[in-house]
Amino acid sequence: MGNNFILSLLNNKQKPHILVIGDIILDEYVEGSVNRISPEGPFPVMNYKSSEYQLGGAANVAANIKGLGANVDLIGAIGEDRGADIIRNLLGDQGISNQFLFKSSNRPTTTKTRYGSKGHQILRLDRETTELFDITWLEWIEDNLAIIQPDAIVISDYGKGTISSNNIPQAILRYSKLNEIGCYVDTKIIDISVFKGATLLKPNKLELDNVTQKYNISNLEDKIIQYMSLAKCHVVMASLGEDGLLLYDGEKYYHSKAKAQSVYDVTGAGDTVLAATVVAKQMGASWQEVADFANLAASFAVSHYGTTIVNIKEMV
Predict the structure, then answer these.
(1) What is the rounded CA–CA span in Å between residue 237 and residue 246?
(2) Which residue from 135, 178, 240, 275 could staple onto 64, CB 3.0 to 4.6 Å apart?
(3) Does residue 42 form part of some domain?
(4) Pairing of β 44-57 and β 24-37
(5) Nearest 5 degrees, angle CA 146-CA 185-CA 188?
(6) Inside any domain, residue 120
């Protein structure tokens, strides 16, 4: 992809208003040095050096959409804890409103703490609950959809209970269809039929395999066709790691090869792909341009440690 398309995004004055709904995650990175094994057992002893917090999950998608030049709002759930305060501060730093965050007194803010040394992850500690929400959460989404009135919706479903509760996918897609706006989905759940009618679903290779494995399909393109049949969506874009992206619109395949880039950390790369996909499409890109732009954005993301907010100005 040449710079002309990226420059057109950068100079576009008509910035789309995109809403992200999904699982908000706080990513914590603890760095230290490991020089010995504990005498208490066969595990390493880490000497603490530093820690850093970053936006993850739906919050990372929203931050990347903002960084790529669109306007964005975020609907998601946080706890009443220190993690929630950090999330609000990080979102504020990116110019993203906290107005539509649902505060839950009986759920913690989903937090993933990664312990690493010299760029290598040693352990990840997850603090979360995946229990489903009550009907109040659905009402919160519906009320705020009416307030926000976005140009497009992104669903970021990490399987933490935010999207799975009380027919929430169907409610969001009803709103999308009624208002004739796109709905772009990244989900880890197996039953993708709940996203019937979505504009696009973005599985990675593992998710594609998990959904289609019972059909004994070996060919990648046939897997994508089966996935689309189950989801009844309009477009499937499969993230294939080092093999790039393969997008299928029901008639034609569009392949974007992975960019030559040093891969440092793939954490959050899927979020960047999703963000770049919706931004490019809402700004008038063809599907081939969408795949190429998303692939380019992902190459920037994986060259950094941890989740990365890609900025459109850096891509020129």
Answers:
(1) 6
(2) 275
(3) no
(4) antiparallel
(5) 125
(6) no
pLDDT band at 241 (very low <50, low <70, confident <90, very high): confident
Quick one: DSSP state of residue 204? Answer: B
Residue 276 structural domain = 3-24+57-101+130-315
**What's the pLDDT tens digit per position in 172-181?**
999 999 999 9
Give the DSSP per-residue string, 152-179.
EEEEEE-SSSTTTSTTHHHHHHHHHHHT
The SS3 of residue 133 is: coil
Number of compact structural domains in the chain? 1
Give me the active site residues, please. 271
Q: Token pair for residue 114?
A: 């990664």
Q: Is 113 helix (H, G, I), strand (E, B) or coil?
A: strand
Q: What is the CATH number of the domain that holds 179?
A: 3.40.1190.20
- Whether residue 92 lies inside any domain: the answer is yes
What pTM did the predictor assign?
Answer: 0.93
**Is the pLDDT assigned to residue 254 strictly greater than 60?**
yes
Residue 238 lies in a domain: yes
